[in-house]
């Protein structure tokens, strides 16, 4: 899958269908149960997504990092999509968890893939020694890791950890969050510039964005050799401002953007080969 031509590099489309906060009251097609996650994953796979970014919930709808809950949900989703999709779990704190618990969940679950917010685990109680041990474990266990970076300062911190050897050489995948988690947030493709300016390494990267400009942002990223994460976690709107009927509609928009750029779509097998997945 590695190539010197960024436009020939297959575009990884990840769908983030629910997030930690939204409820079916926000959109009737927002999945929070294992069964609705499985149905959404299948529809998004058929639309062009090769990775699913999963959040699970407590029975009352709150965000959960329960390892056993993840195991059960992953089994249900895996039955629906087979090996066609990489199933990535979140370790997001969402105001409920602290870094030690987030790390403990990942260790207990040992998932195929996980997203980790750098600023959430880069805490005094973990320290650089703890980060080194955790990232070393992730690399040894061949867990595919997407490191979430919220601004240029996060990128610079990541660069520093890599330079210092706290984070070992491994096939890391970066996610640049364009914009902020605020009410009415609208991202802008120009939000990508500070991330690319700050990046020093050669790690592959993707973007996620907020609002109807999500598609413009991921199209800009795709044109520059990056990858895309779309879905109801951050955005409920199609590019024309209308409410999307479901997550797969946002995936189809991303696939159409890739086709317009002449860029093929990555498969689950492509992702596993690139990032050394189990």
User: Describe the biggest sheet?
Assistant: 8 strands, parallel, barrel
CATH class: Alpha Beta
What is the number of strand segments?
Answer: 10
**Strand order of the main beta sheet, please?**
1-2-5-6-7-8-9-10
**Tally of structural domains:** 1
Protein architecture, described:
The chain is an alpha/beta fold and 278 residues long. It has one domain: Aldolase class I (TIM Barrel), CATH 3.20.20.70. Helix content is 40%, strand content 15%. The protein has ten helices and ten strands. β7 (144-149), α6 (152-163) and β8 form a beta-alpha-beta unit. The radius of gyration is 17 Å and the shape is globular.
Question: Which structural traits does this protein have?
Answer:
single chain; 278 residues; alpha/beta; TIM Barrel; two-stranded antiparallel sheet; 10 helices; 10 strands; 40% helix; globular
Overview in brief:
40% of the residues lie in helices and 15% in strands.
Secondary structure: elements and pairs:
Blueprint: E1 13-15, H1 34-47, E2 51-54, E3 56-57, E4 63-64, H2 67-81, E5 86-90, H3 99-109, E6 113-117, H4 118-121, H5 127-140, E7 144-149, H6 152-163, E8 173-178, H7 192-198, E9 205-209, H8 214-223, E10 227-230, H9 247-261, H10 268-275
Helix pairs in contact: 1-2, 1-9, 2-3, 6-7, 8-9
């Amino acid at each position: 899958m590695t190539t010197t031509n960024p436009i020939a590099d297959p575009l990884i489309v990840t769908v983030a269908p629910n997030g930690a906060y939204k409820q079916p009251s926000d959109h009737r097609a927002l999945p929070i149960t294992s069964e609705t996650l499985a149905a959404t994953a299948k529809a998004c796979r058929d639309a062009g997504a090769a990775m699913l970014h999963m959040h699970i919930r407590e029975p009352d709808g709150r965000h959960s990092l329960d390892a056993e809950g993840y195991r059960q949900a992953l089994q249900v989703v895996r039955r629906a999509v087979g090996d066609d999709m990489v199933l990535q779990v979140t370790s997001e704190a969402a105001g409920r968890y602290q870094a030690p618990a987030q790390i403990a969940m990942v260790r207990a679950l040992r998932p195929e893939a996980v997203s980790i917010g750098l600023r959430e685990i880069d805490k005094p109680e973990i320290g650089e020694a703890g980060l080194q041990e955790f990232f070393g474990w992730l690399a040894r266990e061949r867990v595919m890791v997407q490191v979430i970076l919220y601004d240029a300062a996060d990128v610079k911190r990541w660069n520093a950890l890599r330079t210092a050897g706290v984070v070992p050489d491994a096939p890391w995948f970066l996610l640049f969050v364009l914009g902020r988690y605020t009410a009415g947030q609208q991202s802008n493709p120009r939000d990508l510039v500070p991330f690319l300016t700050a990046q020093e390494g050669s790690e592959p990267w993707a973007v996620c964005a907020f609002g109807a400009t999500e598609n413009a942002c991921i199209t800009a990223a795709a044109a520059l050799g990056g990858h895309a994460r779309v879905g109801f976690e951050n955005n409920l709107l199609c590019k024309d401002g209308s409410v999307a009927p479901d997550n797969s509609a946002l995936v189809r928009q991303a696939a159409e953007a890739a086709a317009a750029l002449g860029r093929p779509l990555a498969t689950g097998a492509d992702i596993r080969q690139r990032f050394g997945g189990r």
